[in-house]
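User: I'm curious whether this sequence folds into something compact or stays loose and floppy. Could you predict its structure so I can see for myself?
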Amino acid sequence: MVSSVMKYSCILIDHDDTAVDSTPSIHYPAHLEQMKQLGREHDSLSLEDWFLVNYSPGIQRYLAETLKLSEEEERACYRIWRSYTTRDIPPFFDGFLEILTEFRSRGGRIVVVSHSESDVIARHYRAQTLVPGFFPDRIIGWEGNIDKHKPNPWPVFSVMEDYGVSREDILVVDDLKPGIEMAVSAGVDSAAAVWSHGIPAIADGLSRLSTYTVPTVASLGDILF
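Assistant: Here's the prediction. I'll summarize afterward.
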């Protein structure tokens, strides 16, 4: 039974830079190593610029269209990235798991919708010790079918069918455009999580699309409760 004081009964949460602080600890170091191994260290970005590239045009387009990597180079980049994501465990943002735990205790459903791979996401949740045993109700990760990944609204519709919830019951929480655009396409509310970087250009861009702009983890709790 969902508590009557909660506006939403189901949240679809992103993972990287929403739940876990993974760009500074994993994805950005992987980028530096990729450029080093490709002999393109002159193309290495600063951490802030890496966040901006994640926002627009997105990593895949950046690699293919800006850096113009060959298929072989792209495969090498994936292998390097995968070596980092399967080796290191990023920290969850302070208070995030506690909010999820409270949301679940009031009857809420928690679904992860991410462009990271499902096994990596599951590993992060199983490794965390802040809230022992906590695990999402479902993980929708990157499995290679672009028709089922953000910004396609399929994850929202799948959750609606699985859990019998309506559009009004759902809040999408994401730090990048694909997740917010997914919410807009599906007709559900969204919260732009900008606590991981605090970059005004990203926050301003997301605020034009999202229902809420959320500067801190605590302020997400204010929305949910």
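Summary: Residues 14 and 174 are 5 Å apart (CA to CA). The radius of gyration is 17 Å.
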